[in-house]
Structures are given as C-alpha cells and as structure tokens.
Design a protein that fits this description.
The chain is of the alpha/beta class. It has two domains: 79 residues, no CATH class; 191 residues, 3-Layer(aba) Sandwich (Rossmann fold). 25% of the residues lie in helices and 29% in strands. The protein contains six helices and 15 strands. It has a six-stranded mixed sheet with strand order 8-7-6-9-10-11, with helices on both faces. Strand 3 and strand 4 form a beta hairpin. It is globular, with a radius of gyration of 19 Å. 33% of the residues are buried.
C-alpha cells in the first residue's frame, strides 16, 4: 500500500513592540484552513533552511555607486547564512545581466560583478516571474528578496499575472523599496509616464506588487537611501531566523487550483503582530 501525504507549511512571523516573539510551543498555535482547524504535525523555529533568490535591480537608477553598495549588502547577507541555506543572485535591468547557481558560497554569488555597470530600463515584472520559476523545483522554505524602486518600464508581463505566480509558488516575497528620484518623503508618488503606461498605470502596477508581497507573508521596507541596504538585509535575515515553521496535512481537498484561506490563532501572545501567507493554491 502506498499513501501520499502532502505537507503544507506555514511560515509565521510574530512580533511585539517591534521585537520577535520567541519561546512559544506547538500547542500555542491553531491553524484554520478554510475555517477548519488542522493538526500541526511539524513545528520548528529559527534555523530551518531556506532557499532565496536575491533579485537586484541594475538599471540606470542604480548608477553612481548605488549598485556597488547593494552588492556589498548581498555579500554580507550570504556570509551570514547558515550552512544549509542557499541563494541565487539575479541581476537585471531590461534583461538578465547575471544569474548565478544556487549556492551558499559568497564568492560564487558575486563572481564577475565587478565589470557590471548600471544602465538600461527596468523589466521588474519579467525578472520577478523568472525568479519564481527558478524556485519551482526547490523544496522547503522559499524566499524572494527584491531590491528595486519598483518602477517597471520594460516588462512584457503584467504584475497581475506575476501576482498569480507568487500565489502558486508559496514563496515569501520581501521588497526592499528604494525611493526613486524625485519622490517626496511622506508625499504621493511622483507621476511617471513611459511608453508602456501612464501615471495611473504605474500606480496600479505598484499596488499589485505591494499586494503580492503582503499576500505571501512577506513585507515591504522603504529605504531612505542605498546606504540602508546592508542593515535592511541583516534585519530580513534575523526575521527569517525567528520564524515559526508549522506543518500540517490539510484535512479537506477541493481539487487542483482551489484556493485555501489560512488563519492563525496564537495563545499566550496578547498584543502580538502576526504575519503569514494569506493562503495557498491546492496542487
């Protein structure tokens, strides 16, 4: 007899007063899958290995040393990874400039980057879709880290389609958003017109990207300047180290493509902020 048991993993970030909330046990969590309580069969925190795609914008907006600063942040991120963690670097403008294999060796990730110069437009949607494809056959915890201002001017794919790919991949998406030239702090986004989209079109694309990030259980961090990249990547790595990873075998199956809405209840954590993926598509 052969029995297939599909394990669904949920990655949970808990924080209170801006600090990770640790020390909870399996019994403190209740997972609701489409409203039905689930039995948690695996429970871990901290050092669960992850596979990450580091998606780095190398378009014209990253000139004047900004790209070098970002790459140095990536180096620090990879050096701080655990032995079983792996990452791939995708450097893009209006095409893919550099793609490394998945590895935990910093020198391999940044090999040949010294000759790369920032130039060209930004095909963010296309690059993000490729990053998700590269994670398709990877098991366990999957992460995409996007470093960009988010202004797409060259992509063939709309962000609505990419948003669907994020749902299917079950990867957590983190967007380290660089302020673009002319953006006022605390003010509305600058009106941007390109051949592909008017200002309203760009606003919709950025809203879709923001929604995809939040649905995945990730977050958006707006950086004041390129010099904030190394510290932001360190915070992100610390967050991944503090995640709770819960696994369960869904009690109800509705067929391939069905959407499962997730909800989490946590006991003994009053005032805690809970963040996890909104749901998943059944396979």
């Amino acid at each position: 007899m052969e029995i297939e048991v599909r394990l669904q993993q949920v990655f949970v970030n808990l924080a209170r007063d801006g600090r990770p909330l640790t020390g909870l046990s399996r019994g403190d969590f209740t997972i609701l899958d489409n409203g039905a309580p689930q039995e948690i069969v695996t429970f871990e925190q901290g050092d669960v290995p992850f596979t990450a795609v580091l998606l780095l914008d190398a378009s014209t907006s990253m000139r004047k040393g900004r790209l070098d600063t970002a790459v140095n942040g990536v180096r620090s991120f990879v050096r701080a990874m655990n032995r079983l963690d792996e990452a791939k670097l995708l450097l893009f403008d209006d095409s893919i400039l550099v793609e490394t294999p998945f590895t935990g060796v910093p020198s391999i990730l940044t090999l040949g980057l010294s000759d790369v110069e920032a130039h060209g437009g930004t095909a963010l949607n296309d690059a993000l879709y490729l990053a998700l494809q590269r994670l398709d056959d990877r098991l366990g915890r999957k992460v995409v880290v996007l470093l960009s201002d988010g202004i797409d001017v060259e992509s063939v794919l709309p962000m609505a389609l990419v948003r669907g790919a994020v749902r299917r991949s079950q990867a957590s998406l983190y967007w380290l958003r660089l302020r673009f030239e002319g953006e006022r702090e605390g003010g509305p986004l600058q009106s941007i017109y390109t051949t592909w989209r008017d200002a309203e079109g760009h606003r919709r694309e950025m809203d879709e990207l923001n929604a995809a990030v939040l649905e995945s259980g990730g977050r958006v961090e707006v950086l004041q300047g390129i010099e904030d990249v190394p510290a932001a990547l360190k915070r992100l790595l610390d967050e991944l180290r503090g995640q709770y990873v819960l696994g369960y075998s869904p009690s109800v199956h509705r067929g391939a493509g069905a959407w499962h809405k997730l909800k989490l209840k946590v006991r003994g954590a009053p005032g805690a902020r809970i963040r996890l993926q909104e749901g998943y598509l059944e396979k």
